[in-house]
Fold this sequence. Notes:
Elements: H1 2-29, H2 31-52
Amino acid sequence: MKNFSWIALVLIFCTTLQSCEFIAGIFKAGVWSGVLIVVLVLALIIWLGAKIFGGGKDT
């Protein structure tokens, strides 16, 4: 059980550190490019949600 806890802790730290590096990279590129990426991702999520849940169907 101790080995499992240790491995889980290491995996959590690895994924957390990678996401922090990604965020740091976005801010190095500039705040506006980060804003643009967020807007594009949100637009993609909304578009996919509309396609999956049947948005725009004629009644």
